[in-house]
Write a structure and sequence with these properties.
With 187 residues, this protein is an all-alpha fold. Helices cover 72% and strands 0% of the residues. Helix 5 packs across helix 9.
Length: 187
């Protein structure tokens, strides 16, 4: 998988051939098919690994809203930043391949659903403003976080220091959720 990731980063999804992957891995072309049926499936497996690494941690009643948001913002940005070159290729592939575009959209929905469920829990527990729509807030916050990460790490547009980026995203999330550093903590 490391060889495949390196080749996808170097050549892009569309210009990568299976023989490029096997040559980089130093194995015979036929051995690729022992593990994957196509380059799309190895690409999907790499996305599975990234998804597992980037997903938010579950919220615990012992965590304050602010602390959870801050920890997950840091985790997301660190993971996204450390794989920015591959995320660049993922976005390029999604623009030109409907299957990959649908796969990426489905993955975003899983992440958004986890955030939505967490926000719903906070609304029900009175930890954030009661009028906050979990559906709207989750979609807006996830999209904003993803876009910021993409611009900062992939497009390299005004990339702030990680602590500053975490502070800004945490502040944004807490404002949308109508909470602060002292609100949203379990009693």
């Amino acid at each position: 998988m490391t060889a495949a990731r390196d080749v996808f980063i170097e050549r892009g999804f569309f210009d990568t051939r299976i023989t490029d992957i096997t040559d980089a891995a130093g194995v015979a072309s036929g051995s690729f098919y022992t593990y994957f049926d196509s380059k799309e499936l190895v690409f999907e497996a790499m996305l599975d690994e990234l998804d597992a690494a980037i997903m938010p941690a579950p919220w615990s009643p012992h965590d304050g809203v602010h602390e959870w948001v801050r920890a997950n913002a840091r985790h997301y940005l660190e993971q996204f930043g450390s794989h920015a070159a591959f995320w660049r290729r993922v976005e390029q592939a999604a623009l030109g391949n409907r299957g990959i575009s649908r796969m990426l959209a489905a993955r975003r929905e899983v992440y958004t659903a986890q955030v939505r469920d967490t926000v719903s829990t906070w609304v029900d527990a009175g930890l954030v403003a009661p009028h906050v729509s979990a559906d709207v807030a989750a979609l807006a916050l996830v999209a904003t976080t993803e876009q910021c990460a993409f611009q900062w790490f992939v497009l390299e547009e005004g990339t702030p220091a990680i602590d500053s980026a975490v502070d800004q995203l945490t502040d944004l999330w807490c404002r949308v959720l109508r909470t602060s550093r002292t609100e949203g903590q379990a009693q």
